[in-house]
Amino acid sequence: MSRFAYIKFFDEIGIEDIPLVGGKNASLGEMYQALTPKGVPVPNGFAITSEAYRLLLNEGQVWNELHRIIDPLDITDVRDLAERGHHARDLIYHAPLPKALELEIIEAYEILKDQFDENISLAVRSSATAEDLVTASFAGQQDTYLNIHGKGSLLDACKRCFASLFTDRAIHYRVEKGFDHFDVGLSIGVQKMVRSDLSASGVMFSLDTESGFRDTVFITGAFGLGENVVQGAVDPDEFYVHKPTYEQGYRHILRRHRGSKGIKMVYSPDITKSPVRNIPTSKSEQNSFCITDQEVLKLAEYAIKIEKHYSDKAGYHKPMDMEWAKDGLDNTLYIVQARPETVASQTKANLLETYHVHNDEKTQTLVTGRAVGSKVAYGKAHVIRDASFMHEFKPGEILVSDITTPDWEPVMKIASAIITNRGGRTCHAAIIARELGIPAIVGCEDATEVLESNPKVTVSCAEGDTGHVYAGKVPFDIEKTDLSDLGTPKTEMMINIANPDMAFKTSFLPNQGVGLARMEFIINESIKAHPLALLNVDKIESEQERKQIQTLIDGHASGKDFFLHELSEGIGTIAAAFYPKPVVVRMSDFKSNEYASLLGGSAFEPKEENPMIGFRGASRYISDEFKPAFELECQAIKTVREKMGLNNLIVMIPFVRRVKEAEQVLKVMEKNGLKRTENGLKVYMMCEIPNNVIEIDHFAPLFDGISIGSNDLTQLVLGVDRDSELVAFDYDERDQGVKTMIKWAIEGAKRNGLHSGICGQAPSDYPEMAEFMVELGTDSISLNPDSMLKTTQVILELEKKLNR
Length: 804
Prior knowledge:
Elements: E1 7-9, H1 18-34, E2 45-48, H2 50-59, H3 63-70, H4 78-93, H5 99-115, E3 122-128, E4 144-148, H6 151-163, H7 168-177, E5 186-192, E6 200-205, E7 216-223, H8 227-231, E8 237-242, H9 243-247, E9 255-257, E10 263-267, E11 276-280, H10 283-286, H11 293-309, E12 320-326, E13 333-340, E14 351-357, E15 365-372, E16 376-383, E17 398-401, H12 409-412, E18 417-420, H13 428-436, E19 440-442, H14 447-450, E20 456-460, E21 466-471, E22 476-482, E23 492-497, H15 503-506, E24 514-518, H16 519-527, H17 531-535, H18 543-553, H19 559-578, E25 583-586, H20 592-596, H21 618-621, H22 627-643, E26 649-653, H23 659-671, E27 683-687, H24 690-694, H25 696-699, E28 705-708, H26 710-718, H27 736-751, E29 755-758, H28 762-765, H29 767-776, E30 780-783, H30 785-801
Parallel strand pairs: 16-17, 17-18, 18-19, 23-24, 23-30, 24-25, 25-26, 26-27, 27-28, 28-29, 29-30
Antiparallel strand pairs: 1-2, 2-5, 3-4, 3-5, 6-7, 6-12, 7-8, 8-9, 10-11, 12-13, 14-22, 15-19, 15-21, 16-20, 20-21
Helix pairs in contact: 3-4, 4-6, 16-19, 18-19, 19-22, 26-27, 29-30
């Protein structure tokens, strides 16, 4: 039994104690007792219970006055809210601490000092008794005080925490969520400070916050104390770790993004003025990640353990929102907070909502940043530089600010979208936007400057990780689909995908895997430079291009290292999104003119009259000139399959003209550690040249499957260059000659026991071509995401007619 009436140390409380110590403290106690023994470090501390808060109000006789201040409140009136909130906080802060409570706080503080150090610094955090619920987090509604030293400062911080139950944002939030102000109590957590001011800290989730994808741990971090990441004052580093393969023993980061991390919060040299302050980060800190790969993987381990601990009896893993900090003195990673994730995990799985933006080459992009959510909004951008001008904001406008804090929430609630200069996807603006169900773009750098003179804008978060603010009104539509009654065809319905940014979101479409993942998109969008230019920077004549390439590879050991990192992480993200379903990745299929347009590409590419039937596909891979680049592609695939553990990856070779060429490509792959059948590796051939069909019995022993590329097959059967406006009218995948070739290809695949499928444009554009493929008995059809649902319904009906 506790020696205190109003204080509980963390080893005395658990998750069942939320009514007494609030969600934050209850979770800390739960983790300290249950997870510290399992290797998840949680700094010790104690909770001042909600009974202490009620004692303070009772002995101070402030209940009636508090009712008089709060009861007439109109939360739609921002000024009235601010005035009443200020009076309520002032009333509670000036109520004297009961003597018995004061003595207990001091005694508990002495115990904590004895356990750690006489000069211990403290984090003093508010913990409301209604917070950290599955349906309402209350995160950031009350105040936190860092680097608190000494009895006097501790007692003052406690009084400020009690008063912060009536911050403007907390009052507003309770009204919105239907909580009675006087039913909610406030507990205070007093915890040993982790010296992350000397190292790094951040936030992590046991799912992807944008899509709700459950199989990943999403980690963000920056140098210094964690408040900057939470508030959105910095663009943090981001990391993803794939949970299923991690638990199989693979230790590899799936994907990462290096943030700019312009400032860091550290202890102030004069704590009498302020306990903490922000200082600029060094250039080397900005150009490096705030923690090592091994530390990222250690945090992923903690996240998985925490999520499992909070699982229900049926084994449902409850997605969690956690805060972490690395101590710069003992170099230990600590978990300082964990609560249920309250937005993405509550999304209805059977209701799919997809936004389509109809932009074109005339669309003007004003600013870009990190996309939050996947929605689109149009309206007037209203730049607010200071919270004192919030009352000028009108419902439906788009809020544009440097950052947001919890004090901004009353106007955030009436905004149609949010745009900030600073912040990452776990910052305050991002979290509230998700909770409100509106799009947000954070970390735009100069949004407040650019959008002041461009008020009418379209905010698009529907195009991947990068959010775009377009000038004026850009048309968009919303597709809503109820998936609960959608059946599964016997024909495998697979997806064509290129952009790793869209992989997690796309994986929620009904599918049996990916029939075509285009490697060239990753090279074009993420790598941007010709692979041979990265290997031979000195051979590039243009000084400007050399500088651009050097900027790209900054932070990597070499151009080769940069290429392998970007390509493997891009491919790995797609493979992880659909794991364990098969993901067919096509090796690079750039033509010489397309390769030449990459940075440094012109130095390594020939000039061809007709690149469409020139130096591309398999012929490149075995050439002396390009072979070093192909070897990098093989190494990236090997990394994804063997280091990331994503063995659902299937390799596909495009534009294989002759059987001998196929044999040579397979030998090059084998030399680079990709031997067909070894470790379950399957290799497919793109069937897109008439000779692939004519000679299929000879190609078959070299491959495990074929995927018909209807685009190139149509060109070569009809002799039509689809890029030529003069003859493009003759290009038609539905031509009888093309259909005959497709029929022969599928028959040849069946005859030789190969998997057969189609990944070209035809089934996406023409439902009748999808029906034709089903009638032929193809094993799979791979479609673009926008035609997946419609074509699936067509095929279900057809299979019903065919009694399949």
